[in-house]
Amino acid sequence: MEKFFELKKNGTNTRTEIVAGITTFMTMAYILVVNPIILGSTGMDQNAIFTATALSAAIATLIMALYAKYPFALAPGMGLNAYFAYSVVANQGLSWEFALTAVLIEGIIFIALSFFKGREVIFDAIPLTLKKAVSVGIGLFISLIGLSGSGIIVHPEGTIVGLGNIKEGTALLALIGLLITFILVIRKVKGALLLGIILTTIIGIPMGITTIPEGFKIFSLPPSVEPIAFKFDFSQVFSTQMFMAVLTFLFVDMFDTVGTLAGVASKSNMLDKDGKLPRVSKAFFADSVGTVVGSMLGTSTVTTFVESSAGVAEGGRTGLTSLTTAVMFLLALFIAPIFTLVPAAATAPALITVGMFMMEPIMDIDFRDYTEAIPAFLTIAMMPFAYSIAEGIFFGMISYTVLKTIAGRYKEVSPLMWILSILFVLRYIFIV
């Protein structure tokens, strides 16, 4: 392990990496429950989707671990699965087989872009200020996910957001868990986030939130993926609808991944002095292969998860972290009942705490230079408010290009930034 992952060189050890990998898994294990529910609304077999979700996550994360050697985990992405189910299938009236075909084509295009280092060039083109801002924006984004998912923050009618009923139920449990997690973090307890999740889950039992069903069994055999695997529909592959579906999957997946890698890498000091991430092309390759494999198994686009920041916050710095997460996904196939016991209120404190950790790079942003400050602010604000990492990047890059040019500092804008900004504007005009 030391030789392959260079643990000492990266300032870590085996125990830290394993705890970080388990923590990452625990914060993203909800996808094993949520993804089957969302994709199941299209008529797909939910049990088969569970297996496809776990397998695709394990395979993609394993590639990230052994090939890219980064502590990033992958799984079918939230937002992308919603677009799959509610836009392509429900709103447009297309089949889930059509949507799977669009995901397959997108994945193949991404593999080609990764081979020719197209996504690496895009990653490097993003200014360092925006990479710092992405980290902060992701922090607010995942904090919002935790606050909303636990019921601390609600969305009452007539109001954008509001405070939930924190005197009882999941919101109260989440606040208790948050207090426990903060105490563990302040006391510098190793594995604080993971321990916080476990303790909160246990406390939830007498509160009636962590429920143990009758006839509970720890072990179970995974359902077959046969009902959904390799169920492609190439009959409309050259249609306008297919083009738009692939283009949307492509844009959102690309910049969700770019944003996650930039944000998490920035927070953990993995970027070099020029703001570049070494081996980033290998990380993109893992993401691309994961999407293709996922579509073959029968699930939506696989992408790098922002919850990877939880493992990084626990000290994960190498592929051993993601290797541990991959193993956990494989184990989940056989001990799924255990992980389904963990309520959202137990993982919310970890997400909120990581959100706080992700805020640190904001101190490196020069808010006295408005050509830097405004794009950074838009990047940070749009991620939670638009509920999308990609949208934050789009607004940040467009404003950076425009404001630098207006200020007469156009030489600070690379040609690729201009090209991407124009493409983003066209996307809003013709797609959104």
Overall description:
- The chain has 432 residues and is mainly α.
- Helices cover 64% and strands 2% of the residues.
- The chain is built from 19 helices and four strands.
- A hairpin with a 7-residue loop joins β2 and β3.
Q: In total, how many beta strands?
A: 4
Low-confidence stretches: none
- The radius of gyration over CA amounts to 21 Å
How large is the count of helical segments? 19
Mean pLDDT: 88
Terminal CA distance reads 47 Å
Q: Biggest sheet, in brief?
A: 2 strands, antiparallel
Keywords:
432 residues; mainly alpha; 19 helices; NCS2
Topology:
Layout: H1 2-5, H2 14-28, H3 31-40, H4 46-68, E1 74-76, H5 80-91, H6 96-115, H7 118-125, H8 128-149, E2 153-154, E3 162-163, H9 169-186, H10 192-203, H11 240-267, H12 280-297, E4 302-304, H13 308-313, H14 319-332, H15 336-339, H16 344-357, H17 370-385, H18 389-406, H19 415-430
Antiparallel strand pairs: 1-4, 2-3
Summarize the structure.
It is found in: Cell membrane. The chain has 432 residues and is mainly α.
